[in-house]
């Protein structure tokens, strides 16, 4: 069993679904979690986590954390020496996801509401790994800029899964299959700012 399989076994999806949906936790497809959000297909989450290649002790940012399941999976992968922060733009999902992650018993992992004017958490970076569970129209440079060197970013871009690897100041981008996700909401600058 690899680290991702172990994370799936330790952090079951059922604990991050609405009560009425928990009986479908084993369904290998996206499930609605309300407020326009979904809990991603397990096979897709596993593919993304394997591309991300998370190691114990790393600092990881989870963008579009929704119910908190991916944040908790990442928390398991980084272990006690690591640090994971999930951010969610939809306020109801952010509150619920934060409760779910807090209940997972990993104080080194947390979820919170995203600042609608900022993509990611640049003030708390750089991040060794960044996972994005929403589809961007183009590669979000704002997140690439938050990567540590070396670092990895996994993000769906225009229907394809992109892996960004930053190493020695060189950024490489590769594509890994076709996927469907809810759209990534881009930041809205505060009034009075260009």
UniProtKB/TrEMBL annotation:
Family according to the record: Belongs to the methyltransferase superfamily. L-isoaspartyl/D-aspartyl protein methyltransferase family.
Cellular localisation: Cytoplasm
Lineage: Bacteria, Bacillati, Actinomycetota, Actinomycetes, Micrococcales
Record-linked Pfam families: PCMT
GO BP terms: methylation
E.C. number(s) listed in UniProt: 2.1.1.77
UniProt keyword annotations, A-Z: Cytoplasm, Methyltransferase, S-adenosyl-L-methionine, Transferase
Protein's name according to its UniProt entry: Protein-L-isoaspartate O-methyltransferase
């Amino acid at each position: 069993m690899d680290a991702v399989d172990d994370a799936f076994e330790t952090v079951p999806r059922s604990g991050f679904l609405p009560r009425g949906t928990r009986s479908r936790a084993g369904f290998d497809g996206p499930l609605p979690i309300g407020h326009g959000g979904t809990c991603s297909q397990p096979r897709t989450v596993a593919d993304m986590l394997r591309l991300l290649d998370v190691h114990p002790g790393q600092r990881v940012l989870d963008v579009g954390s929704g119910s908190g399941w991916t944040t908790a999976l990442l928390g398991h992968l980084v272990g006690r020496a690591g640090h994971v922060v999930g951010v969610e733009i939809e306020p109801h999902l952010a509150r619920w996801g934060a409760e779910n992650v807090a209940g997972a018993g990993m104080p080194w992992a947390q979820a919170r509401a995203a600042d609608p004017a900022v993509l990611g958490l640049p003030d708390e970076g750089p991040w060794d790994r960044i996972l994005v569970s929403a589809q961007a129209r183009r590669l979000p440079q704002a997140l690439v800029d938050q990567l540590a060197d070396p670092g990895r970013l996994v993000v769906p871009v225009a229907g394809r899964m992109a892996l960004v690897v930053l190493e020695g100041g060189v950024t490489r981008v590769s594509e890994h299959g076709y996927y469907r996700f809810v759209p990534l909401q881009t930041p809205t600058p505060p009034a009075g700012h260009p």
